[in-house]
Design goal:
By secondary structure, this protein is α/β, with parallel strands linked by helices. The protein folds into 2 domains: 2-95 and 313-330, NAD(P)-binding Rossmann-like Domain (Rossmann fold, 3-Layer(aba) Sandwich); 101-298, 3-Layer(aba) Sandwich (Rossmann fold). Helices cover 31% and strands 14% of the residues. It contains 12 helices and 12 strands. It has a 7-stranded parallel sheet with strand order 8-7-6-9-10-11-12, with helices on both faces. Strands 2-1-3-4-5 form a 5-stranded parallel sheet. Helix 11 (263-271) links the parallel strand 10 and strand 11. The two termini are 27 Å apart.
């Protein structure tokens, strides 16, 4: 069997370190593991590859890979692999949601906390040498607690589910949308909400909605977390019309893909104080251009798409890759299989 790795990124951490293919070769001596960082150099090696780990493939490369049966993405999102040549084939796609889910969920909670406690403003006043107690209280939204607040999660996949569990443990009420609401909430979230001691506790329960009930979720949420996949029907999901349905002191957190939000509409809503704030870890264009108006938009926390950063990243990747490689060789079902027609 031949396992081809084709990964190249401008950011060092996203590139596979040399120890990963070396360890794979030792653990799987009957597997030929080839590691490339250049598409053109790798192309001649596609013809006999049984499995490929990569973010994306060109149609002509898929055509060359006659033996290809499995593509593994090092990302949670796989929209770059959703091309007709792959979708219509028998090639299995797996993603790395189980690698990124826990740490990105922690990142989402950190962003919620930062917005709730007005940390960006605190840092700004610190840089100005200002004791900002009065200013923070006079700004809107004021510093607040998250126990008893409602978190609306759009996309209850691996990351969304991890975030929901963490938020629930902090006393937040959880509302979520998922493609198949009949599946309900994960068991840990199914218990009635109301056990916490937040000052603004609400005697209502956690709930799950279908995609056509997003507006209902938005109207009730104090924080809206975007963790949905990027598809044709989720592009600009949060537009001017939907922003108008959000509470004026509610905040949006995006750790999914930048294109889920209509950025000009978001900037307008923030400048006119129609919503309370936003924490953005993903953008339409990355790196975010220095002339983007987002940099100077009030009540925005800009994070440089670092939600998945952790020193444990490639150890997590290795555990995931090696387990799936073992399963592939044994003819067992793989972990993290993507529904190619759904795109996640």
């Amino acid at each position: 069997m031949k396992f081809l790795v084709l990964i190249h990124h401008r950011f060092e951490l996203w590139n596979m370190p040399a120890w990963v293919p070396e360890r794979l070769r030792k653990e799987f001596p009957n597997v030929t593991v080839e590691h490339f960082t250049d598409y053109d150099v790798a192309t001649p090696h596609f013809h006999d590859a049984d499995a490929i780990m990569t973010w994306s493939l060109r149609p002509e490369q898929v055509a060359l890979a006659k033996k290809l049966r499995w593509i593994h993405s090092p990302a949670a999102a796989v929209h770059q692999l959703m091309i007709p040549e792959i979708i219509s084939s028998d090639i299995i796609i797996t993603n790395s949601s189980r690698v990124h889910g826990p740490v990105v969920a922690e990142h989402a909670i950190a962003l919620i906390m930062a917005l709730a406690r007005r940390i960006p403003s605190v840092v700004r006043y610190q840089q100005q040498h200002v004791w900002s107690q009065t200013q923070l209280w006079n700004e809107r939204p004021r510093p607040r607690e998250i126990a008893g607040a409602t978190l609306g999660i759009i996309g209850l996949g691996t990351i969304g589910t991890h975030a929901a569990r963490l938020a629930s443990g902090l006393g937040m009420r959880i509302l979520a949308t998922r493609e198949h609401p009949e599946k309900g909430l994960p068991p840990v979230l199914a218990a009635p909400f109301g056990a916490g001691e937040g000052a603004n506790q609400k005697p209502s329960g956690n709930a799950v909605y279908g995609p056509d009930q997003i507006d209902l979720l938005l109207q009730q949420s104090d924080y809206v977390l975007l963790s949905a996949p990027l598809r044709s029907n989720t592009r600009a999901l949060i537009n001017a019309e939907r922003l108008a349905k959000i509470k004026p002191d509610a905040c949006i957190i995006n750790i999914a893909r930048g294109a889920l939000i209509d950025t000009p509409a978001l900037i307008d809503a923030l400048r006119q104080h129609k919503i309370g704030g936003a924490a953005l870890d993903v953008f339409d264009t990355e790196p975010l251009p220095s002339d983007s108006p987002l940099w100077d938009t009030p009540n925005v926390l800009i994070a440089p798409h670092y939600g998945a950063m952790t020193e444990k990243l490639w150890e997590r990747h290795y555990a995931n890759i090696s387990e799936n490689l073992r399963r592939f060789l044994a003819g067992e079902p793989l972990i993290g299989v993507v529904d190619k027609h759904q795109g996640y």
